[in-house]
Design brief:
By secondary structure, this protein is an alpha+beta fold. Helix content is 49%, strand content 8%. Strand 1 and strand 2 form a beta hairpin.
Length: 466
């Protein structure tokens, strides 16, 4: 049996079965967080671009987050772009960003077919599970030579989401295992190229980021549609030496990791990381250290002479992360000195970081000059000991003194009880992000419906208020 057939059998078996409580809850957490990120994006530049791009639409079939109906493809495109617009969305590591690629198409199909909440949960669980397992089968989905420093390699990306998302969407539509397998095979041939490493090295940063979320959503929808119409997909796409892994530029993979224990052991909940800050995840541990130092020592911005943060080596090796100059909102999302300035100057974490007023604030630009970004000297060592660890530190020079703090796990990581973001914390994040575009009552109704998603008989009831 081909690997793709094993994945399809897993999705077929999962349909209608009772899922573990932690799986159900994690799906609801991912959905609520994605809505939060989308609402936050509606008032910033990238979100407005996505809405403009989605206007070329056909028959209104699915609802955009925040209101308004578009065609299936256009709604999925816009919603995917909104989720990832300010880089506030969850990461499933490995491989990284997954939700903005798999969730929008599944929700669009669920709305158009009046799917119930349990079916949506199962489809999203399958999509995220397969995507995470894919990442784990390819050493975090990065082609890195053993012993190499942890930096962006020649090839990296999240194109595996096309396979996981298509499998989840096919399951939602109740396609039989054979058609599901064909859909996944088609999606693998249609998946976007692995272009993250080139994007990470390009300045000025482009708005398609590391992978265009909206395009991935449309890929998933098209793959499912073609399979329904009778198109045959390549079932051997994940077997042999010349398939998906090879033509996506990956040289090392182990498909046994992808299918071992599939259906008996759900892995994605323990690899899902949420973000307390609307910026690239690689600086989040250091930002939390800085926030702790400021709070515990009551440090004012004018008292701070210099800040040195140590984090993921990516931040210290590529100008998109360490530069003290930014040219766009997309660059601000990645830029560590900018994020440090946001924390130090007391900007509330959320869409406020990416308002024009914040990006053009002379205080922010001035404070960025006081920031140094460095690779944490023990990053690889600690990561090797525990793949959940993302050690980071902050060193603040103020009042003639030196204040330091270091953390092994960043807030939002499920690695420890202290670092895990609670349901209440995710709800607070949701309400803050939604406050710009939804009334307090409407936001409460959306959150309550998501937390009780398994009881929903028709997803359109949620779509009508999101």
């Amino acid at each position: 049996m081909y690997v793709i057939e094993k994945l399809a059998a897993f999705a077929d078996k999962t349909r209608g079965m009772a899922l573990p409580e932690e799986v159900v809850n994690e799906v609801k957490r991912l959905l609520l967080d994605s809505l939060a990120c989308s609402y936050a994006a509606l008032t910033v530049h990238k979100g407005k671009l996505a809405l403009r791009a989605g206007q070329a639409s056909g028959t209104p079939e699915a609802t955009v987050f925040g209101g308004g109906k578009l065609s299936l493809a256009s709604a999925a495109f816009v919603n995917g772009e909104l989720i990832n617009a300010i880089d506030f969305d969850a990461c499933l590591i490995p491989p990284g960003h997954i939700t903005p690629y798999v969730l929008p198409s599944i929700l669009a199909l669920a709305e158009s077919t009046h799917a119930d909440g349990q079916s949506v949960i199962a489809a999203l669980a399958v999509a995220h599970e397969v995507s995470v397992r894919f990442g784990r089968s390819t050493a975090n989905y990065r082609d890195v030579t053993p012993g190499q420093k942890n930096a962006f390699p020649p090839v990296s990306g999240f194109s595996c989401a096309a396979l996981g998302g298509t499998l989840g969407a096919s399951q939602l539509l109740k396609l039989d295992a054979g058609i599901m397998a064909s859909a996944v095979g088609l999606a693998g041939r249609m998946a976007p190229a692995q272009s993250l490493s080139q994007w990470a090295r390009s300045r000025p940063a482009t708005d398609d980021k590391y992978l265009l979320s909206g395009w991935m959503s449309q890929t998933i929808l098209q793959a499912v549609h073609l399979a329904e119409c009778g198109y045959r997909g390549d079932l051997g796409l994940l077997d042999g030496d010349h398939g998906f892994f090879r033509f996506m530029g990956i040289s090392k993979w182990d498909t046994n990791v992808m299918v071992s224990g599939l259906g008996d052991e759900w892995q994605f909940p323990k690899w899902t990381i949420y973000k307390p800050y609307p910026t690239c995840r690689i600086s989040q541990t250091a930002l939390q250290c800085l926030e702790i130092l400021i709070r515990e020592n009551n440090l004012r911005p004018d008292e701070i002479d210099h800040v040195k943060v140590q984090c993921d080596p990516h931040a210290a090796s590529l100008p998109l992360w360490y530069s003290r100059e930014i040219e766009s909102e997309i660059e601000a999302q990645m830029n560590v000195p900018y994020a440090v300035a946001m924390v130090a100057l007391g900007f509330k974490s959320g869409p406020e970081w990416h308002d024009d007023a914040a990006m053009n604030d002379p205080r922010v630009r001035e404070f960025m000059q006081r920031v140094t970004v460095a690779s944490h000297p023990h990053f690889e060592e600690v990561l090797k000991e525990d793949s959940q660890a993302r050690i980071g530190s902050a060193e603040v020079h103020a009042r003639g003194k030196r204040f330091t703090h270091e953390l092994r796990y960043r807030k939002g990581s499920p690695a420890t009880d202290a670092s895990r973001m609670t349901d209440d914390e995710l709800t607070d994040k949701f309400h803050h992000c939604a406050s710009r575009v939804l009334s307090e009552e409407r936001a409460r109704r959306v959150a309550d419906t998501v937390w009780n998603l398994e009881k929903l008989q028709d997803l359109t009831r949620l779509a009508q208020i999101w």
